[in-house]
TrEMBL record:
Family per record: Belongs to the DnaB/DnaD family.
Domain called Replicative helicase loading/DNA remodeling protein DnaB N-terminal winged helix: residue spans: 11-261
InterPro entries tied to this protein: DnaB/C_C, WHD_DnaB
Composition bias, Low complexity: 439-450
Name under which the protein is recorded: Replication initiation and membrane attachment protein, DnaB/DnaD family
Organism from which the protein derives: Lentilactobacillus parafarraginis F0439
Length: 480
């Protein structure tokens, strides 16, 4: 059952749940904020599911995925990728039936409001990485129109109780139907839950950061208000407390001494994309360097080498590890690589150590010069389907991937040389054959034959001279 969770077929069945089907979607938020992150295909899937849910009206009508595939003109694999993107940004929740085989339940969620979206640090950071600073500012300007200056005015609007009469007894003790409605609304809340996107603090000591800034000009209240953003940046870049304090000081308004959160995002993003900054991505002091491990790899036993890679994956932030590997090659972290890593981190599918193993494999083991976004997404999708949750799980999947590649390569070679065809035997042309007189081999053989003939003639001549000498000696003896 676990393996079937992410394997869709055209005949896979699903039902739709949407407790907000009677509401209209805010297409301005979807196109300006969600579209750059999830892409056109995922957005079309979301809007199609929403349209179908309006017709179903929570009546548990059974559908088949073939309907979605034919309307979107995509295959099962691409449909699954679209669905996972919607799940990643909390626009869709997927359940699998434990009683009916190959059946799913899709629960649609209302998008965040523009304010909620931009206040959610991980979403706003992801959007910034996708579109860049200039476009990001343009999007914010489109969604939040400035209030024009109308001069000196006084608010004379009537309040609610100025216009309507509400018994004070009802306000003190709410009627039962009002309380029941409040409970119903609370239980059926259908807006996107942004709390799941907030990264968890692991080793970052926020109190230590406050202690470092305590004697500085920075207003600590503004720092505490930016705690979610600070933790998001730590999860992504692995910035320690001292370095984070330095970034905060640079992002603080010197007139008010308050931290400007948007400035902090921009400064960190810009600082990590400049190739001429040398030590901007230092990991904590107790972490190991990917460069050092690469230098020692040849002298280490395989199990020790593997364990060191796993230790690095567990003690570094993704972009910090990426920077270390690039420094070893005298390269630079490109904006495309940053976006690919940021996208994967923001989805919240894998812990940091798994993402690091993927980065290490693609750059250090597979010898790619840059992170290939498509290959990275393909491997990540495969790991998600196999529920990879630790660095050790990632190693196991990589070993299986290498075995499959080797098996496929061997199969191709066998098919190429003996697959259904007779073995091809090369026939040399006449001029290339060894026994032809014009070839180097034949010349050598001819020379050897000539030498043998000369040797035999010389021996015969020598024998003749010896015979003649013996004959003369015998003749002298007879004459005497």
């Amino acid at each position: 059952m676990l393996n079937s969770e992410n394997k869709l077929t055209p005949d896979s069945k699903y039902i739709l749940l949407n407790s907000s089907a009677n509401r209209s979607l805010d297409h301005s938020v979807l196109t300006n904020l969600y579209l750059p992150i999830i892409g056109r295909g995922a957005l079309e899937l979301y809007e199609l599911l929403w349209s179908l849910s309006i017709n179903d009206h929570n009546r548990l009508i059974l559908h088949k995925h073939y309907e979605l595939q034919s309307m979107l003109d995509v295959g099962s694999d691409k449909l699954l990728r679209y669905r996972r993107k919607l799940e990643g940004v909390n626009l869709l929740k997927t359940f699998i039936s434990l009683t009916s085989a190959d059946s799913y339940v899709y629960e649609l969620k209302v998008p965040c409001s523009a304010s909620e979206f931009l206040k959610t640090d991980i979403l706003s950071i992801l959007l910034l990485g996708k579109v860049g600073e200039e476009t990001y500012n343009q999007i914010v300007a489109r969604l939040f129109l400035p209030k024009p200056d109308v001069g000196r005015v006084k608010d004379v609007s009537a309040s609610l109780l100025d216009v309507f009469q509400v018994p004070s007894s009802d306000l003190k003790s709410l009627p039962g139907s009002v309380n029941e409605a409040k409970r119903t609304i609370s239980n059926r809340q259908n807006s996107a839950d942004v709390s799941r996107l907030t990264p968890r603090a692991h080793d970052f000591d926020f109190d230590l950061l406050l202690d470092i800034l305590d004697n500085s000009y920075v207003d600590l209240t503004s720092v505490k208000a930016a705690s979610d953003l600070i933790m998001s940046e730590y999860e992504l870049y692995g910035i320690d407390e001292l370095k984070m304090a330095d970034f905060i000081k640079r992002a603080t308004n010197l007139n008010t001494n308050k931290l400007i959160q948007r400035n902090l995002k921009f400064i960190i993003n810009r600082d990590y994309t400049q190739p001429d900054v040398t030590d901007r991505l230092q990991a904590p002091q107790n972490t190991q360097s990917a460069t050092e491990t690469g230098k020692r790899a040849d002298s280490l036993p395989k199990d020790r080498e593997l364990q060191e890679v796993i230790d690095i994956a567990k003690t570094n932030a993704p972009i910090a590890l990426l920077k270390q590997i690039k420094d070893q090659r005298h390269g630079m972290v490109t904006e495309g690589e940053q976006r690919a890593v940021r996208d994967l981190v923001a989805r919240g599918i894998f812990p940091t150590e798994v993402i690091n193993m993927l980065i290490y494999y693609l750059l250090a083991d597979d010898q790619h010069s840059t992170l290939n976004k498509n290959l990275m997404a393909t491997i990540a999708d495969d790991w998600a389907q196999h529920h990879v949750a630790t660095a050790e799980d990632a190693v196991s999947q990589l070993q299986q991937r290498v075995k499959k590649q080797e098996a496929a390569r061997t199969k191709r070679q066998n098919r190429r040389y003996s697959g259904g065809r007779g073995q091809i035997k090369e026939t040399l042309p006449d001029w290339a054959k060894a026994d032809q007189p014009g070839s180097a081999t034949s010349k050598k053989a001819a020379a050897q034959s000539t030498n043998k003939k000369k040797s035999k003639a010389q021996q015969a001549l020598e024998h003749k001279r010896v015979d003649e000498a013996l004959a003369r000696l015998r003749q002298k003896k007879e004459d005497q």
